[in-house]
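Hey team,

Filing this mostly as a record. A colleague (T.K.) asked me to run one chain through the structure pipeline before their review meeting, and I want the input and output archived in the tracker in case anyone asks later how it was produced. No errors, nothing strange. Just documentation.

Input sequence:
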Amino acid sequence: MSSNDGIMSTSVNKTLDKSKSDFTELYAKSKVLIDNARNSMGVFVNAMTVYTSFLLGKYMLEEEQNGNERAKYGAKVLDSLSQYLSSEYGRGFSRSNLAGMRKFYMLYRDRENQIIQSAIGQLGQLQKNGIVQSAIGQFEIDYQNFPFKLSWTHYQVLMTIEDTSERLFYENESIRGTWSVKTLKRQYHSSLYERLALSRDKEDVMQIVEKGSIPYSPTDILKTPYVLEFAGLEDKSSYHENDLESAVLNKLQDFLLEMGKGFLFEKRQRRFTFDDKNFYCDLVLYNRLLRCYVLIDFKVDELTHQDLGQMQMYVNYYDRYEIIEGENPTIGILMCKKSNEALVELTLPKDSNIYAREYKLYLPDKKVLKEKLQQWIQESDLSE
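Output structure:
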């Protein structure tokens, strides 16, 4: 390369650098615009899919109710509409899909007024007049009023839940936790709703339905039982505490999700030394919502009073030497194969922040948990 070529190359680079600095604001504004457009488009398409499914369900139900023999006419409506829409648009409008849309409307018809008042509802009206653009401009501002914040696939899962309160709980948790469909299925099949309800007082059960499982007190982070099936260990007596701890840490994200909202991982095998003797706490977590440390020990053998005393020692140490001003007292959780509430009650003071909770290495039987929850509610009613 000649010296003239080098000078020319340097000159071009300087020009490009200058051009870049001249258009920095333009670049930034353009990037924000395109990023927002792409994000909004995904939200918009999803909301329109749910909106369309809702209205199709409504149209089908209204048509059925116009028939003289409703049961027979309902089947005819589904078959006929499925054939017509499939011929017009192809896949996606099978008889079972349309039946799902009808069920969707029947389960959520109480939200119809909210839909009409939302941006999506307004868009549906404006489409008739050919002025869709004006509604799109308002969509991002008004989307918070649209009553369906999840994807159609999420709602297909939610529609399999018969109990209204339980269905609302999982919907709210999916929205707050931005759960994927996979996470929603896992939490439902692990009976999160029943386990949280069994861990709380009766008056708090409806609160978790309306407000979700945001912790306000130490007992709010407890579940009965904890489900650690993601660890991949067989439910047998041959594994050791170290095996369980290692398996959990290999699936740390799943474990923190099972623990609940606000948990952060800090340390494993935290060592405590007293009189030249070493003790190790399996896991140290921090809950940013409760603003406190949460210490966890796994116990694969029968729970003993020594286990409780050792956890009390860990908690006392953190309360005296680790927490800073503004933080709340430390919580200790002993995760054991079999808890002993009588032993815990007799060993620890009444105001203790230490809890023994069972864990399972397999998904619990939802039917059994529901029966336990119903029995627990009935017993609470009788005691009042």
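Quick notes for T.K.: The two ends are 94 Å apart (CA to CA). DSSP finds 17 helices and six strands in the chain.
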